Amino acid sequence: MTITIRTRLTVWYASLVMTILILLGLEVIFSAHWGLRQVDQELRSGADGVIAFVKHKFDTKDVDTRNEELREHSALLPRGKMFRVSTPDGTVIYQPKTMTIVPPIATHSDTLRGSDINIENRSYRTINRFAPVGPTGFLVQVAVDQTEYQELLTGLIWILIASVPIAGLLAACTGNWMSKRVLAPIDQITKSTNSIGAKSLSRRLPILGTDDELDQLTATINRMLDRIAISYERIEQFTGDASHELRRPLP
After folding, report:
1. Phi-psi domain of 179 (left: phi exceeds 0; alpha: psi -120 through 50; beta: other)
2. 88-99 pLDDT, tens per residue?
3. How many whole angstroms from its chain centre is CA 79?
4. Is the separation of the CB atoms in 46 and 60 below 8 Å?
5. Burial profile 88-127: b = 16 or more Cβ within 10 angstroms, e = fewer
6. Which helix (H) or strand (E) segment is 116 a member of?
7. Contact 93, 87 (CB under 8 A)
8. What is the rounded distance in angstroms from the CA atom of residue 87 to the CA atom of residue 119?
9. What is the mean pLDDT of residues 237-249?
10. In degrees to the nearest 10, what's the CA dihedral of 29, 31, 37, 40?
11. What is the pLDDT of residues 91-120, one digit of tens each?
């Protein structure tokens, strides 16, 4: 099956547009996903701050105002951040009301542990750490509601999925229209060249004066027609001379 240049140009143009759109969309999605992961650094910083505060209270033996100051510390956290301080046996020392929806995750390791939790169609990112402070130590859990960010990321993915075929279709239509306009002069040159026969070798293709590739093609065809016309004239002259000589009587 023969695939025309017009079809190939259309396919190439649509493929190029779709590829660029996919690459750009993936870059945006990965950037948004990376931004979501960056929240771990903020949570880690928040956990370190709470641990430092609790440690300071024990070092100064000032534990009577601990809960009140933890409440004040909670108010100073960035928007959406919340934390819980509890004992290893699960007794909650302090947590704001917004933190009650996030279940505690026990850990007795000093290593930070992060996890994603989905509760009632809400998405939370939480980091847990054991603070070896006091006689038994404390469990510190810091969390943030990431529902809006997750919805944004999901929306970006669906936009990419929906936009790629639409963009491909629009690009194909545009590429087809553009290739038709670009190849129209070539079609005209082809038709004009085919209309020139042995009895119309004096005709020449019009040169538009744009000095582009089409003008160069037209000039090349005209020079070829000049050579054909000269050769044809010589053949006619030779044929005429030969016929004349053949008609002459023998001496």
Report:
1. alpha
2. 777 887 787 778
3. 31
4. no
5. eeeeebbbeeebeebeeeebeeeebeeeeeeeeeebbbbb
6. strand 113-119
7. yes
8. 24
9. 68
10. -150
11. 887 787 778 888 876 665 555 567 778 887
